[in-house]
Every structure is written in structure tokens, then in C-alpha cells.
Amino acid sequence: MTYAATLRYLYALQYRGIKVGLRNIRHLVTVAGHPERSFPAFHVAGTNGKGSTASFLASILTAAGYRTGLYTSPHLIDFVERIRIDGTPMPETLLVDYVRRLQPAIEATGATFFEATTCIAFRYFADQGVDVAVIETGLGGRLDATNVVIPAVSIITNIGLDHQEFLGTTVRQIAREKAGIIKPGAPVVTAAEGEALQVIRATGRKQRMAVLLPGEVCPLKVVGDRSGRAVVGVPRGRWRQRGVVLGLSGAHQVSNASLALSALTLAARAGVFPRVTAEAVREGLEKVTDLAGLRCRMERIRHPRADITIDVAHNPDGVKVAVGPFANRRRPYYDVVLFGAMKDKDVTGMLAVLRRVGKVVVAVRPKTTRAASVGDIVRAGRALGLAVGAGGSVGEGLRRSLLRLGGDSGRQKARILVVGSHYVAGEALHALEKSS
Fold first, then answer.
1. pTM of the full structure
2. What pLDDT is recorded for position 406?
3. How far is Cα 63 from Cα 50, in angstroms, rounded to an integer?
4. Rounded Cα gap, residues 151 and 133, in angstroms
5. Per-residue confidence at 322, pLDDT binned at 50, 70, 90?
6. What is the pLDDT averaged over residues 364-392?
7. Domains and CATH numbers, the chain
8. 3-state DSSP call for residue 68?
9. What is the pLDDT of residues 80-93, one digit of tens each?
């Protein structure tokens, strides 16, 4: 198969839907020779912040000289972004080879897209001899395909209402599913609060593992801000230092970075990954985009006509965290908010947050059958009293917004926020980089 044919085959597996359970993945990894047993892993679950936390962690490990695998989802532009080693995506030729080799087992089990992708990632990491892998769950935790790994540390970022059709309708039910990644012998750190934390700690007790908070392990102290990026210090411990500029914008990234450092601290207490130094911590936190490949987290893009920020946020909590610093201004901070989401998400809830930060919302639909229609977004927005218009595709909506805004507004460049699903962010990023 060619690379294009391989992608068509993998994407066709999406029509098998989402299967909650471990039967298929256990069969696949058995056929593949149990690659998930070949490397120590950090396992990351949670509602928001998984990708940032996992990337900070992988970036620090890479900076320390460890050959580091990173498995995240979804991708922004190209499928192979999901599977990286030291920030470099898996080669297309190897993806073709792994799909060819595993296709009989994929068909025999009726494996889904994510189950097949997870097995491919594990086999690739094992064959490439990674020293460690950072594995992000796809959906939930307990019955997620990634939950065949035996983690060195388990990380649960936070708990919110998302994927309720699979995980449950209450915070307690969802927390119970996310806490399913906790295993005996693997320390646990979480940023969850309230009743979600209670559920996670109860699961920890059943597994005889203490559940710790970042503030109890490796808190970060905010000492400044540099162009929207927090400047932090590590006030205590083996990596004590100050003046570290986080490589991702937004105050919420402090929590994600603290989770990553706390996980490394717990691993260090167990005597593993001793090469992580204060210098590696600094480099990893500051150069997370280069060393782990993470993009579109309140990322500012240079453009001659506007100041453009792109962020992935797929639920109201995620949007609220991303735009929090701009929500209470007397006037909307952004001239245009370009927004698109999947049809199974809380579109109305996200729009309710965005109305406080944008003068105009432009509804767009990315190129996936899962996306909410432009018409549905427009109707939901107008029901909330928003000034919302139809933008068409992501590229077309971006083009129309730029033409409408023209150049400078007289005081400064106009501001555009592109926010929503990974598909929206990826298509916007691709369109902007293609036109530059």
C-alpha cells in the first residue's frame, strides 16, 4: 500500500465506531509480541490538559537525553504526528509497513481506528528501542485501549463533563473511568478537585496507592509573565530554580507543567530516570514545541493582516481556561472568533463562554463527518444573542475574516482567535502556513 492508501484504510476503521473495552487491544498486542511491555511508561488521563502535560513530560525527558516516545491524539495536520520519538513524527514508510503487518489481526478482531493506532504506536516504540514512552489516553481510562500499559507513574489532569455517552453523566462516574488507569505499584498524581478527587483517591486506596496533588510533590511558583507565557520557579527539590519561561501560552499551563514535574519527581523517588537535571527541566519546559512537537495551545501566528491565536478546546471548561484572561474585560478582546466543533460536543456551552471575548463569531466546519454544521452553530449562537455568521470551511472562514478586517485597525492589528476542535486548529494552521 501507498501512504495515502494506508491512511484511507485506517480512517475507514472509524466507521466501526468507538468500542469501550480491552478485548481487541489485548489480542492485537499479543499478536504484535506485547510491545507495551518493552518500555517504562507514563500514562496520562483526564478531561483537559492531557496533551500539554504529556508534551511537557516528554520534552523534559528528551532534553535529559532519554529516547522518548510520545503517543497523543488526535493530530493537527498529518496522522503520523500522533506517534513521535523525541518530537519527530513516525516515518510514513514505517506506518505503511506496520499497517500491512497488523492488518490480518485488525480484521480478525474488528479493531477500531484507535485500537489499531495504539498497537502500531506500541510496536513502533518497542522496535525503535525507546527508553520511555508517554502515553495519552484516548477516551476515559479504565477501558481505553492504552490501558494495557503498566505505568511507572499514572497522571490524571482533571475531570469535567465530556464524552458522557461513553463515560457517564456525572463527574463521579467520569472520574471513576479516568481513575481506571491507577495500578498497584505506580504512583499517582492528579490536579482533580472536589468529588472527582474523592473518587480518584478511593480508587487509589483500593489499589493501595496514595494519590498526590502537584502542590504536595513539585509545585511551581509564578514569578512573572512574558508575552502571555508564565515565568515560573521551582521553589524546592532537586530541580530548584527560577526564571523558567514556559513554552506554551496561558496561565493554565502552569498546572500542566507542575503535573509533569510532579510525575518525574515521583519517578525519581523510585530511582528511575536519574539523568533528569535542573538544566533538562528548564530546557524541556521552555522548548516543548521543538522537543515534543506540541502546537496550537493559545499559539500566536504571525500574519501581516492580523494577530492570530489558535487553540484546541473541545468543551466549555477547556474554552473557559483558554480565554479566561480575556473574559472580564470591558470590551471583547478579539475582533473575530473563528469557531468549530464536533456535533457531539456542548456547542452551546462553548459559545456561551466565547461571547464574552469576541465581537463577532464566525462559524466554520472542518472536513470531518463528525463536525457540527455551520447552520447548527449559527442557530445556537443567535439563540444566545451572539453576533454570529456563517464562514463555511475553516480555510474559507479564515480568508473571509482576514478580508473583512483588512489591515491595521488604526490602533493595532486586528485580533482573531481560532478555537475549537483539533480539526479546526489543524486546518487553520495548515491554511496559514500554506499561504505564508
1. 0.94
2. 62
3. 20
4. 9
5. confident
6. 95
7. 3-292 (3.40.1190.10), 299-435 (3.90.190.20)
8. strand
9. 999 999 999 999 99
Q: What is the dihedral of CA 264, 320, 248, 162, to 10 degrees?
A: 50
For residue 314, give the C-alpha cell: 473541545
Helix axis angle, 171-178 to 194-206, nearest 10°: 40
Alpha carbons 278 and 57: distance in angstroms, whole number: 14
Residues 6+ apart with CB under 8 A from 297: 51, 52, 248, 249, 250, 253, 311, 312
- pLDDT bin (cut points 50, 70, 90) of residue 314 is confident
In the block, residue with C-alpha cell 508534551: 55
* Alpha-carbon torsion angle 297, 353, 77, 391, nearest 10: -140
For the stretch 192-202, pLDDT in tens is 999 999 999 99
Plot region of 6 (φ>0 → left; ψ -120 to 50 → alpha; else → beta): alpha
Strand pairing report for 241-245 and 334-340: unpaired
CB-based burial label for 406 (10 Å; 0-12, 13-18, 19+): exposed
89 phi and psi, to 5 degrees? -65, 155
b or e along 100-118 (b: 16 or more beta carbons within 10 Å of the residue's beta carbon)? Answer: eebeebbeebebbbbbbbb
According to DSSP, the residues that pair with 119 across neighbouring strands are none
Amino acid identity, position 340: G
